[in-house]
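Reopening: DUF4175 domain-containing protein still failing for me.
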Amino acid sequence: MSAAVLQRLKRRAQWRRALVVALAWLPWIGVAVAIAWRLDGATGAAFAAAAGLAACALHAALRARAIDTAWLVAALDAAAPELQDSADLLFARTDALGPLQALQQTRVLHRLGMQPPDLREPLPWRPLRRTLPVAVIGVLVVLAWPRPHGEPAPIAATPAQPAAQVQSLQASLDIRPPAYTGLAARRLDAIDGEAEQGSTLAWTLRFAVAPQSVRLRFVDGDTLELTRDAGVWRGERMFERSALFRIETDGAPPLPNGPPYRIEIRPDLAPQIRVLQPERTLSVLDAATRRWQLVFEASDDHALGAATLELTLAQGSGEQVTVSERRIALRGEGDTRTRRYAHAVELAALGYAQGDDLIARVTVRDTRAPTPNVARSASFILRWPPPQGTDGTGVEGLVQTAMPAYFRSQRQIIIDTEALLAQRAQLDAATVLARSDAIGNDQRILRLRYGQFLGEESETDAPPPRHDDGDDHDDSHADDAHDHAPPANANADDLMRGAGHLHDLPEAATLLDPAARELLRAALNEMWQAEGALRGGHPDAALPFERRALEFIKRVQQADRIYLARVGLELPQLDPTRRLTGERDPLTARRDPLVPRAQTDDVPRAAWQALHDDAPLPLAELLDWLRGTPDAATDRLALLQHIDALQRDPACRACRDALARALWPSLVPPPAAPLSRPAPDAVGRAYLDALAPPAADEGTP
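Support: Ran it again with your exact input. Result attached.
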């Protein structure tokens, strides 16, 4: 019973507050409706009334929602003193109250049931008596305000004239995707839309005023004539690329002017391949390994086709290298769009032996017809290192070691830094600084050694680091950088090396590919930061840079061998009938004349120049160029839209500027032209005249 009483009190208070808000809004809504009727007639008045009532209802709802439990408790305590400020007990759970609180709750419920208070707000009669006359006066002023000069009076109605026929259109678009996509045909209640590449689009058009002929005029110059069938015009076409078009009619009013209709084609993308195992492109074989596990995933936007594993086995060394290839069809697990492939290569069955390289690559096709899209993964190499001492014997020009042995001491620098940090608490500041500076010197020497592979100059002659990662270090490197007197039989190259320094290592200039050089450059940057921190006595700050440098070095060392291609000598065929005849008539001088550079952007460049010079635009050539240009190279729809706007209004300056801006990214930057030699000044001419030979008539006596 108490809950029903409290709910009734709350609802009555909310309705009263909503009424108060409505009485405050209604006079001004009337003024707004009068102004709107005066300016825009009945339509404007209806819109103003709807907007005003919606705003009033929203404000009233927000104000009514403010009456909640806390408001109800405060209002009950203020309106009913007999409740003894205990209205909050009405909303408390009985099992959570103590004995005295339960007794007080019973008393409050009894008193509330005997005489419920009225919690409604009083009606705002005093504010209403002030605002209502003002609103009425405002409405009368608006209605009595004289009309502007030339505004037609509503009472003088002119006789109705027969309205001109207006063309309207009902259209539907049927989209039939290619069969290989597995997508169902669909219908759109529109003229334009988005479809898959190779889809057939069929239009069904119905006009309010029947025309004699209907055609779809594409902006790129093509035309599709529609056929009439029982008052309905139909036509279909297969699309490989996006297009813009307009509808043209004969013998009927034209359609309202508007932007061209768009057909956006989603291209059929090639499959995506993600290799899960192995994780690196180069794997070194363990002697106990008998199988090479390959796992990868493939996905396609429509459906996957055949997958093939290509294995290439390179055996032998030097000039006795033999290569054999094998292709294996794979079966995957999953649906038509995403599959997982796994295959274990039996190494013994392939004849894989020590010193061989096994190269694996995956090829995946989709079901696109008639020509499927093909995706190929990167090549993954399984290498079984040859026995020590036989690698590269006799083929020094074919196999080169990219990373010498002394490039393996970055880990030792990290170990020394960690040891210094562990002992830092037991050492004084001078000792810590000295040991940190010594480690920084080792880091500097290692950085300079790596820098030789990037063409950096040596700062000073310093020996290579003598510590290593546990491998035997070649002591012959220790004296490579010390000053020695040149030997008696030293040649010119030896003397130059002793007197100066090289900007690059001749044998290392072409052994690192651009990707490896970038990794090595990143490692040098980290070494530089580590060296600066170590020199300043902050080994803790240098440790992160040292570890990042080691990670870069590991990635560089993966390309530890580079194979140079062997190219045989191919001589031209000789004519034995011409030997020893002395005839040289058909022979010409073998010169390499300069050939003008072929311009691949002549059409867009000429079109852009014509737009810039306000000259006639070669639209036919521009459309032909656009048909032969891939969609990925240009924004095809944007260019077609600008061309359509310019065709409809050739004098539109903004349209010409927009087309020029759209063509600008398609222009190829011109090659750098040689600069002409500047004309000499007076001193230069005098110098050149002095160098000129004497004239013939100024002979010696």
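Residues 2-65 form the longest helix (64 residues). If you still see a failure, please send the error message rather than a screenshot.
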